[in-house]
Amino acid sequence: YSNDNGSTWSSVASDSITGTDVSFADTALTSSNTIRFRVIDTLGRTGTEASQAITIDTTAPTTTITIGSIVTDNSNADFTNDNGGVTINATLSTSLVAGETLQYSNDNGSTWSSVASGNIIGTPAVDVSFADTALTSSNTIKFRVIDTAGNTGTEVSQAITIDTTAPTQVVFDLSGGNSSTDNGSRTFDSDTSYEIYVVFPSDETATKLNDNQFWAGGGNLGADDKVLFVIGDGLDVYANNNVKITVDLSAATSASTNIRYFDRDNVFGSADLILAPTGKLTFLEKSLSVPGLSSSTKMTVSVDLWSGTWANKPTGSLIANLPTSLSLP
Prior knowledge:
By secondary structure, the chain is an all-beta fold.
């Protein structure tokens, strides 16, 4: 056997030959070269030589990857999801070259799988997106590029939190002027996720909270919290064009007809219903109780729900099949 294209030869040990099978390790072959085999007898006569070029590739891929987001992370870009199974979005620094494969791990690198070429798209093909339905608990995901020689590029990682803990419900019932007690403290906790419901009365009287029903700690609200509005039967809310919005809560079967998700930069549907970061809720309401005003007159009603401001604008989606009535937790 020769590992330098026939310049030098060595004998293959007999225990490396089983029948017609030859197998042995060549730890000295550390760079690309041509190996050769031949058979020689005791008189020094040699048979036909066989050769094979061997490429030793120790160069790691230089293509890198950036993990951008998970699609179902409550829209907060914090890599937190409230149920298992997420869609991973990432971006390659450049398209993969021949012999390179993008690998993915959802168990912090203990096991790896290849990302299918169909999940790497774009021109150039650098956009990575695929669903990982097996990621059902918190873990660290990793990406790397590997070539046919087994060289791996730089690994990137991202901790993913799968939090299936139900959020704490807080109800501000403006019809009775009451709010949830939260075990009596009425203070938002930064380590708790909240679903905050604001329930409007079914009549058209003035709306307010009782003096001891506001919540403190508004600054502890953040991107993992939601604020939802619930309109009661018969409440008339007018839009800027004086078109009345009436929602029959008892007949509603979908969140799309009785609940709107809060975005503090916009308004409630087509109505002027705005919740400021300070917890001040302002909306336009028809009132029949003020002398001199017609039934179509809009009145501005303001209610302070909590004190302080939150760190980030909450984001999220509508909650389907909300009960037609909510009791105070």
